[in-house]
Backbone:
């Protein structure tokens, strides 16, 4: 059984694992029959978490570390699906230009938000248990083992709807991280009276 080392601390584990690497409010992914295989889905998640671990182990801090996380996120996550889901119903009225700007700002926001916390996490190991098809995507089941703590389950939802294998959601101990991000972005938008442009500007420095 493959193992993937990663860093973590109990008090933040639900928040941090939601990235991250996303993080992140997922709707079911519609689409045609799967071309993706369980082996491909598992391989994607192993590569993603290995890259996260390498970023943490690099010793980098601040903007340099956040930039590393942003590259990981853009490489392995279906950023467009995640951003549209996080924006929720407001995405229906957003222009193409606004969605492009929001997606870019949201990606940077998540990278800073979770990048600030990942360095606190040391000594965790992720074991990939397997993958199963769910509707038009695969769900990869992993177990996170933390020193001195009970193991907990992390589910990664993976699709190839964007034309390549990407993850679009994480569920940690039953908590849907993308749903959490959707609630947070929704609250931020409400405080700005539904002004998407103002939200985009504020996301550029938030996190």
Residues:
């Amino acid at each position: 059984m493959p193992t993937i080392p990663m860093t973590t601390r109990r008090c933040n584990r639900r928040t941090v694992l939601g990235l991250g690497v996303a993080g992140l409010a997922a709707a079911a992914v519609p689409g045609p029959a799967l071309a993706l295989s369980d082996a491909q889905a598992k391989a994607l998640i192993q590569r993603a978490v290995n890259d996260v671990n390498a970023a943490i182990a690099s010793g980098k801090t601040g903007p340099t570390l956040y930039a590393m996380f942003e590259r990981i996120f853009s490489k392995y996550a279906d950023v467009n699906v995640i951003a549209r889901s996080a924006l929720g119903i407001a995405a229906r009225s957003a222009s193409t230009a606004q969605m492009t700007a929001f997606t870019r700002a949201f990606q940077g926001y998540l990278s800073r938000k979770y990048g600030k916390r990942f360095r606190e996490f040391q000594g965790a190991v992720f074991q990939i248990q397997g993958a199963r098809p769910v509707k038009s995507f695969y769900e990869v089941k992993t177990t996170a083992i933390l020193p001195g703590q009970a193991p907990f389950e992390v589910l990664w939802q993976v699709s190839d709807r964007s034309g390549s294998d990407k993850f679009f959601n994480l569920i940690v101990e039953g908590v849907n991280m993308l749903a959490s991000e959707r609630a947070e972005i929704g609250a931020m938008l409400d405080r700005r009276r539904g002004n998407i442009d103002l939200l985009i500007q504020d996301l550029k420095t938030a996190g």
Summary: The two ends are 35 Å apart (CA to CA). Confidence is low (pLDDT under 50) at residues 1-11, 18-33. The first strand starts at residue 3 and ends at 6. Residues 9 and 195 are 36 Å apart (CA to CA).
